[in-house]
Design brief:
heterodimer; A: alpha+beta; 5-stranded antiparallel beta sheet; globular; B: alpha+beta
Chain lengths: 291, 607
């Protein structure tokens, strides 16, 4: 993914965020560019672009540097990560056994039923709703960040194959699979295992260019959903994703999504609230208005 | 169902309902929460007038049996409603095998008793199936085939638009699933009902008894005016106790006698005696009127005052409770304000209105009116007083009307205030929620920044200590190298010395062995003899050497004495020769220097 600041002076250290390299997980796509500090140059030099990932060998080789640095932009992704973690907790809760609370003498004193699908769907929308910006828009990178916090990590071999094959297609696969999963959550699909399967399916189909060879999705409407997602996110350079794309369309999935987005717009978006962006001073891309 | 479906060759319920249908949808991954999902759907569809039992049956059968085709896989449901029909659809995937058709047929047959029409859409090439059950809301009999099968392998058409798609999570499920209150016939709180059942339904009659434990019976007459009660004692036995009756009569006589004496004593004061239905009244000279019990009878003015006092709604100053002090500028104390919530205010306003219209105020007014009419007839001779009383009563009535109007206005303003409070409260709650969210995000950010700062400081400290240790390391390395070298050298020396020691030890052992063995070998004997011979020769040579040295010494002395003179001569000649040679060498050196100077000049000129 493109980004503007390939090198940063030493003085930029006050605005950077530091992370020990031994805490960086391999095969986890990054949400912002990663920098290393070179003492003899006295500069921060980028080594990873957003959406790229480290392999264990790379981490081992870079271990002497001890720390990796990220831009202040990383802070803007926390809201999306937090929302993702909360949703994941809810979805995991729904899959487990009945909740019970035992007293000190081991007798079950309090039993609660697991939440139903409609309760989870409502909760998911309430958590995702405030993440949309005014005008019901959101940028693809943040969708990917949120979904990465909900779903299990993608298959390692698949990630490596995709990245080695084509970086562009790899990024597009990552963004599109996240967008499809995001929309599926808005449609009311709240089964965590299903969402993991869906995301992996779409990523493999797109990033490894095996769309035709991949078996059709179950249920039926998800085929429609993937088609709509590809239309609204045509490439990895797409800047913004809007809910308005789905209004006025004839597809059943589009009509369903449009009605949910109406609720998001009316009840959850605060007037004047601006969504996070990768552009400008707060982001990692200087100019606005390409592709 | 009478109308023609809009689109049969599409998935979803929208094609079977009108253009203004509403569709409620969800995805069901398992049958675990099927009951609660059906509760919600039923609660929503009941508003349209659907039969709850049939709706539940169709939902449960559809979803449960669809799940059996591919257990654990998601099943999509849609429940659509328009003004004529309710449609319940379940969309699922099933693998084509031998049992597919029979299982599908079983599902359809289970739905037949509960539905008016059933539509089965199949797309076997994609393993997709949908079963839609239609319920007619009209009471008229439905027309058309009961079961319609549609094959979509040739192509699926797009779903017609519906007025509204609503995900089940967007419904107000809390209020839809709230239990309806059981309405009682009395429509009053249970406590009030119990109280009413104790005191009688109309509460007008009262029954009282005495605590007298006598055998005599007590008959109490009940009436509307509780003040008037007549007590009549009836002896329990027919036999009269003569002794007790004589005593009672004598006591009565004494009492009357005392009364008479009192009257005689007051005879001068009495101006006239008036006979009344209750007994008599004594009008005294001073104007006072006494009744038969010698109590002062209140006059007309006093009666009017008493009547007014009964109906006067406002308490006297002395009877007013102390109001808690408020801060200057406040009309209401904070405690009172805290107690004034909208619910209380409205209740107070309505209670006030009720009190004015039906309460004691109204009752007091009616009583006053009655008393005034009786007073007018009997005790108020002057027309002026009558007019005054009438005017006063009319004023009271107008005041009552004004109070009623004020109470109405108060009620309205209270309702208005309540509405305003509610809207303000909801706006403030929203604001609070937004602020708490932003606060939480900021707190998270702050904690993360703090952590990063701590990590940076730790790294900085580590870096500093690393820098300081670099120089020490070099010195230590050098010293270490030197020590290593010394150690190597020492080790080598040690090994050499050890080898030497080993050799010497070996030789020693050999030598000691040679000494210890007397019967040595012939070689040893020859060597020993040789050694001895050489030793003797060495001693002889030493002796001869000493003799020769002695002799040489004697001869040297002789030579020295004879050769001194010749040596001196030779020495002088040598000295002279050395001096001349020296002079010649110096001359030659000077010539050489001169020649070399000339050569250098020539070279300079040549260059």
């Amino acid at each position: 993914m493109d980004f503007s600041f390939k090198k940063l002076p030493k003085e930029a250290s006050s605005t950077l965020r530091m992370c020990p390299l031994d805490k960086v997980k391999p095969y986890q796509p990054l949400s912002s560019p990663g920098y290393l500090y070179f003492h003899h140059n006295e500069k921060f030099v980028s080594i990873k672009a957003p959406l790229d990932f480290f392999t264990p060998e790379e981490l081992k080789r870079l271990a002497p540097y001890e720390n990796i640095f990220f831009l202040k932009f990383e802070d803007t992704t926390f809201a999306y990560r937090d929302a993702g973690f909360q949703i994941k907790t809810l979805l995991e809760l729904a899959q487990g056994p009945v909740i019970g609370r035992r007293s000190s003498d081991r007798r079950l004193v309090d039993v609660a039923l697991r939440p139903t699908e409609y309760e989870l769907s409502d909760a998911t929308l309430r958590l995702f709703g405030p993440l949309w910006g005014e005008g019901l828009s959101i940028e693809p990178l943040f969708v990917a960040v949120a979904i990465a916090s909900i779903c299990a990590p993608l298959d390692i071999e698949s990630l490596q194959r995709a990245r080695n094959r084509s970086m562009k297609q790899y990024e597009y696969g990552l963004l599109l699979s996240a967008w499809v999963t995001f929309l599926a959550l808005h449609l009311g699909y709240v089964s965590l295992s299903f969402l993991n399967e869906l995301r992996s399916h779409v990523f493999k189909a797109v990033a490894e260019e095996e769309l035709e060879a991949t078996p059709p999705l179950s249920p039926l409407e998800l085929q429609e959903l993937v088609g709509l997602a590809m239309m609204s996110l045509p490439s990895e350079k797409t800047r913004r994703l809007t809910g308005e794309f789905f209004s006025g369309r004839r597809e059943r999935v589009a009509q369903k999504l449009a009605s949910r987005f109406v609720r998001v717009q009316e009840q959850m978006i605060i007037e004047g609230q601006k969504a996070a962006t990768v552009f400008g001073e707060e982001g990692f891309l200087k100019e606005v208005g390409h592709g | 169902m009478v109308k023609q479906p809009r689109e049969l060759a599409s998935f979803g319920v929208s094609g079977l309902l009108g253009p203004k249908c509403e569709v409620y949808y969800s995805s069901i991954p398992s049958t675990r929460s099927l009951g609660r999902v059906s509760d919600l759907v039923v609660a929503k569809l009941k508003q349209a007038g659907g039969d709850e039992l049939r709706i539940r049956a169709l939902l449960l059968f559809s979803i449960f049996e669809a799940q059996q085709f591919r257990p654990g896989k998601i099943v999509n449901i849609e429940c659509g409603v328009d003004f004529e029909d309710i449609a319940i659809s379940v969309l699922f995937q099933a693998e084509s095998d031998e049992e597919l058709d029979s299982s599908l047929e079983k599902l359809v047959q289970d739905l037949v008793p509960h539905a008016d029409h059933i539509f089965v859409r199949s797309q076997k090439s994609q393993s997709r199936f949908e079963v839609v059950s239609l319920l007619s809301l009209a009471e008229a009999e439905t027309a058309g085939e009961k079961i319609v099968r549609i094959d979509l392998d040739s192509g699926v058409k797009s779903t017609p638009e519906s007025a509204l798609y609503v995900q089940l999570g967007d419904l107000d499920y809390q209020s839809l699933l709230k239990e309806e209150r059981i309405k009682s016939a009395l429509e009053t709180p249970n406590g009030e009902t119990l109280i009413n059942s104790l005191s009688g339904l109309d509460g007008s009659k009262k029954v009282s008894g005495t605590e007298d434990s006598d055998d005599s019976l007590t008959v109490i007459k009940a009436g509307d005016a509780p003040q008037q009660e007549d007590h009549v004692r009836v002896p329990a036995s027919s036999e009269v106790d003569k002794a007790t009756s004589v005593e009672a009569y004598e006591a009565k006589i004494a009492e009357l006698q005392a009364e008479l004496d009192r009257f005689r004593a007051r005879g001068d004061k009495t101006s006239s005696v008036e006979i009344t239905p209750e007994g008599y009244r004594v009008h005294q000279v001073g104007g006072e009127v006494l009744d038969q019990t010698h109590q002062r009878v209140p006059g007309a003015a006093e009666k009017i005052k008493e009547a007014i006092g009964k109906i006067w709604p406002f308490k006297k100053k002395s009877e007013l409770e102390e109001i808690s002090p408020t801060a200057p500028g406040e009309l209401v104390s904070p405690a009172q304000l805290a107690a004034m919530n909208p619910a209380n205010l409205e209740g107070v306003a309505s209670h006030l209105l009720n009190e004015i219209q039906n309460g004691q105020f109204n009752q007091a007014l009616t009583r006053a009116q009655k008393e005034v009419t009786t007073l007018q007839k009997k005790d108020l001779p002057s027309p002026k007083a009558k007019r005054w009383v009438e005017g006063f009563m009319s004023e009271l009535m107008t005041e009552k009307a004004k109070l009623v109007e004020s109470a109405h206005k108060l009620n309205q303003s209270v309702r208005q205030k309540e509405h305003e409070f509610k809207t303000k409260e909801s706006a403030l709650k929203e604001e609070l929620h937004r602020l708490t969210e932003s606060m939480r995000l900021k707190n998270n950010l702050f904690s993360r920044t703090k952590d990063q700062l701590n990590e940076t400081l730790v790294a900085l400290e580590k870096f500093k200590t690393a820098e300081a240790g670099v120089l020490d390391d070099a010195k230590f390395k050098q010293k270490y190298g030197i020590s290593q070298k010394l150690l190597a050298v020492t080790k080598k020396e040690n090994t050499d010395l050890l080898e030497k020691i080993a050799d010497l030890n070996k030789k020693m052992t050999q030598a000691s062995m040679a000494k210890q063995r007397p019967g040595a070998s012939p070689e040893m004997k020859a060597l020993q003899e040789k050694y001895d011979r050489l030793l003797r020769q060495t001693e002889e040579f030493k002796k001869t050497n000493q003799n020769l040295l002695g002799k040489i010494g004697e001869r040297k002395d002789r030579i020295v004495a004879e050769g001194n003179a010749e040596a001196n001569k030779r020495l002088e000649a040598a000295m002279k020769l050395a001096v001349t040679n020296k002079r010649e060498a110096e001359a030659l050196r000077a010539q050489l220097a001169q020649i070399t100077g000339e050569m250098e000049d020539l070279r300079k000129k040549a260059s």
